Amino acid sequence: QPDSAALALPDVHELACFRTSPRPCPNQQLVDQLKPLREWRFLQHGTGEPEAISYATAVSVIIGTPFVITSADQARALPKIGPKLVVKIQEYIDKGFIQESRDVEQLERFKVLRLLTTVHGVGHALANKLYDDGTRTLDDLQAMLKDRHDILRYMRFHADLQEPVSRTEVESVRDFVRLQVDKVLPGAHLELCGGYRRGKATSGDIDILITFPHQDGLERGFLRRLVDRLVKKGLVPRDGGVLSLTEAGSSRTTWANRRASLGDTLDKALVVFRHPANGTTRTRDVWRRVDLVVAAWPHWGPAVLGWTGSTQFERDLRRHAGKLCRLHVHSGGIRDKETNEHVEAKTERDCFRLLKLEWIPPHLRNA
Ligand code: TTP
Ligand code: MN
Ligand code: MN
Ligand code: MN
């Protein structure tokens, strides 16, 4: 029977948008042990598949648990934690480690899939196929994908792009981008989102959101002009530096009087950016992945909210919005599900208010 201490512990909500998720969290060592198992499911099934999502959801519940889990009873009382995971948590409590997690990390398939999926354009499906065809190294991969010119061109940036990016460097890249933004069109506001905004010590890439405060429509066509300029300046390589460029608003009127379409997203450019060495301790320029995202001012709230993450936080936010508020939330805007009309939300706080949620600061969204 559960002990009285367990009964006094707070309830943990099943959705991350009702929890605080700090980094590190009270059960960080347990979470670190579960991470390879979570990644293993991503690598086998893909991030969008139920097997992977249910595991990520369970790990996220542990991240959002505000007390140290000291018994299997406590674990069982948490939402979204199945019996198999309870056994693993018990093992961790008893031994301080989870054997299956160590075993997975030693699997050749795990190690190779992890390596292959670091290449932009190689998802879990292609990686598994390559592995089954005998691919073990990045050289093998390049030999196997002779017709994938995008991937071969990308490989010359690959080693640099694997390095974690410090917060100072993220800010430095933002400053370089800001300089060029101001040359294209003055008056822009830039916001660093993604893991940086959630307080992570290092980031995998640099997520920069751009808007023109108190203006609506000024941002149209801006991203293409910015990318053209970055290419012309040599800050984004002409040969394969633009991984993708999507413009959502090519045919739209201003946001305020526009009816939302379903496929609507923000203008975004995923690029490889040359971070110049001058002003740093480095002796050479390095390549960094930068996501440039442009949002209209009336979209700014959901854009920042959607690009801050974490992925699990966004997933649970959408679930809550759809179920309880009859709202469709995406980084391009918030829509009423019945009327399909956009609901204006200039700030993140407006979004939380519309979704009837208590404010959660970005550094507590590491779900
Ligand atoms: P990422 O940059 O992929 O992840 P991250 O910043 O949390 O971590 P990392 O240090 O590895 O970069 O995504 C950041 C947020 O952007 C995430 O919440 C999802 C969102 N996003 C979109 O909304 N649309 C997209 O097309 C992509 C790629 C990300
Ligand atoms: Mn990021
Ligand atoms: Mn990103
Ligand atoms: Mn929109």
From TrEMBL:
It is an enzyme of class 2 (transferase). The active site is at residue 88. One of its GO terms (cellular component) is nucleus. Its EC number is 2.7.7.7. It is found in: Nucleus. It catalyses: DNA(n) + a 2'-deoxyribonucleoside 5'-triphosphate = DNA(n+1) + diphosphate. Residues 25-366 form the DNA-directed DNA polymerase X domain. The keyword Lyase applies. One of its GO terms (biological process) is double-strand break repair via nonhomologous end joining. This is DNA polymerase. It comes from Rhodotorula graminis (strain WP1). The lineage of its organism: Eukaryota, Fungi, Dikarya, Basidiomycota, Pucciniomycotina.
